[in-house]
Amino acid sequence: DNAGIWRLTYASEWLGNPNAFPLSPHLVLRAKPYDDAQEDGMVEKFFDNLLPEGDARLRLEKRLSAKNGDSFDLLRRFGRETAGAVTVSTSPELKPEDSKYVALPRPEFLTRVRRMRQEGGSLLEAARMSLAGAQDKTAVRMEPRADIELLDVLLEPEDQAPTTHILKPQPPLSRRLEHVAVIEFFCMTVARRASGNAPATHLLFAPGPDDADEDCSRPDALEWVYCVQRFDRTTTRSGGIRRLHQIDFLQLRNEWASTMSKYETAGGAKLGLMFTLAAKYASAPAVAINALLHGRIISFLVGDADAHWKNRSLMWSNGRWNVSPLYDVVCTVAYPWLNATPAMTIGGCEDERKITADHFKAFFAECIEPHGAKVQAVSLALRTLGASVPREARALYDAIAPQVGPSNAAFLRDKVLPVIDERAAVAIEIAAALAPPRAVRGSRPR
Asked: Residue 97 pLDDT more than 80?
């Protein structure tokens, strides 16, 4: 309202819909309006979490001369396509099921990317959509055919049409994250192949600014773009795209999207609370606990120290909340200038190069045991993933190294694979310490 107080009212048509779902477990379906004056900012917190964070948000506000911290103004301009099933519009005639798209030619996309790097803008500015996170990204509709392919036909939504894939180009050189598009593709592909619980990923390439012939013959001179299929979208029988609702765990905690809230070591909540919330709200608690367990171990194995509260979500599907697939898995420790302290620690371990069985015992006591699982669940996950992650990583490296160019391949070989191999060996040792294999009945010690 004019006083800056957020209010939310579910439409009567929505309340009468047999397929209706709540925006979150905190904003349950009811006729009575939610008023932030009495609800501790609950409505604004939910919607604020749909916006970009950190520098990405500041750049967007600066470019648009938007009022600092005015979430409503940004959502009014950019909320037509967000995470999950939520769309924000001031035009009642626009419908979320609209399916209007326009072609986004490769030269125009690359122009936007280079402008973002040079002028400090945002890819979301041109696309007029809101995607949470600190990295620059945009979303399109497309149909990739191969793991690695030429960036070609992109479709940009008009009005409130849904997208199918999120694209992340290389960030500006000033961020010192060289090769990160290839690294995220690599880590996410390994996570999917090792666990089966991650969306399809692709690596797109295009002529670089120095490729005058545009023949893409020099991999090290190419423009690389990480592409991930949206798990919060599904294709209907008629070929349309339908949004699936999701909320991240920071929304589930009813917190603002801030560094303090996202990171345990910055004052945020500990990992144990995430498991408690999953057990409380997920329709199948045991499945949810196992998904979070495997996700945290994969983050450890690939050296992803940035697996924070917004990097896990619950999805609404067929009347049930379920833990989402993995996303945003990157070997951050390959960049020594980034903070290597885990966003959420395993048993209080702030340097995972020195992690021990005692840390995992504390992790078990905090996160797993309260929900009825045995320590063998942790041991089995460590042993299984400790074998499958390095195996899949080596196989993927051998397959893509000739395609991604010498410098990308060298970074994977020298900075990422050693992290995975070293941590996998530690994981298998800790698995044995947590739950030693039982002796075969009837056998005698030698």
From this structure: no
**Same domain as 141, residue 40:** no
- 422 against 133, higher pLDDT: 422
Q: Which two tokens stand for residue 174?
A: 């000033």
Among 31, 47, 63, identify where a domain stops: 47
Q: β-strand 320-323 against 313-317: which pairing, if any?
A: antiparallel
Q: How far is Cα 395 from Cα 190, in angstroms, rounded to an integer?
A: 9
Domain boundary, last residue among 189, 211, 242: 242
φ, ψ of residue 42 in degrees (nearest 5) = -60, -40
Taking the alpha carbons at both ends of the chain, their separation in whole angstroms is 79
Separation in Å, CA 71 to CA 57, 90, 127, 358, 441: 10, 14, 18, 43, 64
Contact yes or no for 274/206 (Cβ under 8 A): no
Q: How far is CA 248 from CA 55, 104, 174, 255, 306, in A?
A: 20, 30, 29, 11, 15
- pLDDT per residue as tens digits for the range 183-214: 999 999 999 999 999 999 999 999 887 665 56
CB–CB of 53/132 below 8 Å? yes
- Interatomic CA distance for residues 263 and 276, integer angstroms: 17
Tokens of 83: 């995470």
Do 169 and 96 belong together in one domain? Answer: yes
Identify whether 27 is part of a domain.
Answer: yes
Total-model pTM: 0.92
Q: Which domain holds residue 147?
A: 48-242
d(CA 301, CA 382): 9
Q: Is 341 helix (H, G, I), strand (E, B) or coil?
A: coil
